[in-house]
Prior knowledge:
The chain is of the alpha+beta class. 19% of the residues lie in helices and 22% in strands.
Amino acid sequence: MLLEKLSYLLGLCALAAGTILQNGQVRTTNYPDTRIDISSYDFRTYDANATELSYKGRWDSKKVSWWSAPGLVFGFTGNTVAITFGELTTDTTLVGYRVGGMDWIFAGATHLLVTPSTPGINETYPINPLTFELRVTNWAYGVQIDKVHVAAGESLTRIPPYGRTVEFIGDSLSSGMYTSYEGLSSFAYGVGAGLGDTEYYVTAYPGICVSDQECWGNRRGQVHQWFYTSDTSGRAAEIWGDDPEPWDFQKQETTPGIVIINLGTNDNNAANNVSTETYVDAYKNLIRGVHGKYPKAQVIVMQLWMGFYQYGNTYQQNLGYEQELKDIVSYFNSDAYLSAPSIWDGTTNMTTVLDAPSEPFVHYFSTKGIMQHNDIGPLWHPTDVGAIKVASHLTQFIKLTFGWDLVATGSEIFHDTLYWNDQQNY
Length: 426
Ligand SMILES: *[C@@H]1O[C@H](CO)[C@@H](O)[C@H](O)[C@H]1NC(C)=O
Ligand SMILES: *[C@@H]1O[C@H](CO)[C@@H](O)[C@H](O)[C@H]1NC(C)=O
Ligand SMILES: *[C@@H]1O[C@H](CO)[C@@H](O)[C@H](O)[C@H]1NC(C)=O
Ligand SMILES: *[C@@H]1O[C@H](CO)[C@@H](O)[C@H](O)[C@H]1NC(C)=O
């Protein structure tokens, strides 16, 4: 759905068109125009801070969304849902929304998102009350929730969170850069949604290093920024300046049981001039930070892939910090660490040695052999197919390593991936 700010509702600006490029060609899309004039509806209206609304991922105190694929979930009665987006909403943000487990709808103020003709609206099972879910797809953009409306006489209900949660901490690779729907086509989203009955938070932003220094215009690295609500975008600088809100881990809806880190592709780029020592120190501190905030979480360190190159008459995968990442995992599993485990509080240079010994909690996920050279697009990121491959393997790794069963029952995960051949004998 293409969102326009309230000013569009008031008719001050022309409708902007949302375009998805596919191999350089414009993909045919048919997003419904959901903008309405609220004065012609009889709504029951809820404020953005209503307890019935569950915000997924990171949203700030102004109810502005950050990072990749943040979401909003609530139950509702009746067959109408509209949302008024606040003035801090980025023009032309693409969001996906759906009711229950039906397919994602993308459309393009107050937007009437659910109507009597929305797929699934008349079905009362197995999801009851019917749920509404929205996800911001563009990592660079965000929405601000101002009001949520249902028909007069109807109501919202709070949907309790699922019992399992995964969090990704990453860069452009995890945030879905250069995939069709960005956040909603990323491997991180694919793992989170694909596990089924799982909350997922994708704290990832393109170009960011783990090392706390400027990388591709991001002023801070994840070893610092992960502790904050907003990402390192220009949008965040505009709204929060030099004083972003610390993320309140205590108020987070759920605590992740698994945290997956994919960081280093930007540190590894000579343009960012990060020393190997700085990278390793920052990576270790990020893990210590995760351990401090989520003492029971298992951490997965992802092997980096740096793209492919032609090697004689075939292809090879480029790797980055290959030995360093293995050494980091070994370090956390060593007796030396486990006998004096430490946490990092993210705001000073201090690490604190924990009183209680830790159990091993850091795991290595090898990405070798999952993608092939044509699963990486011209701008060095997984294609939609590449993202699906990574998500599938990582999901299976989580199942085999931690015993998390796959419980999704068939509702759509990746949108617009239905490629098929219905001819024969050609
Ligand atoms: C929401 O915010 C309004 C005003 O900012 C306040 O009056 C109200 O009590 C808040 N509601 C909840 C549920 O926090
Ligand atoms: C839901 O039921 C109403 C009333 O029968 C009908 O007009 C509408 O088309 C139905 N919606 C869907 C998605 O089937
Ligand atoms: C990169 O870092 C090294 C060591 O800190 C420094 O000597 C060098 O000037 C830096 N190069 C650039 C381009 O910043
Ligand atoms: C953290 O390290 C930086 C750079 O080494 C230093 O300037 C700063 O004073 C240190 N802060 C604390 C709280 O130790």
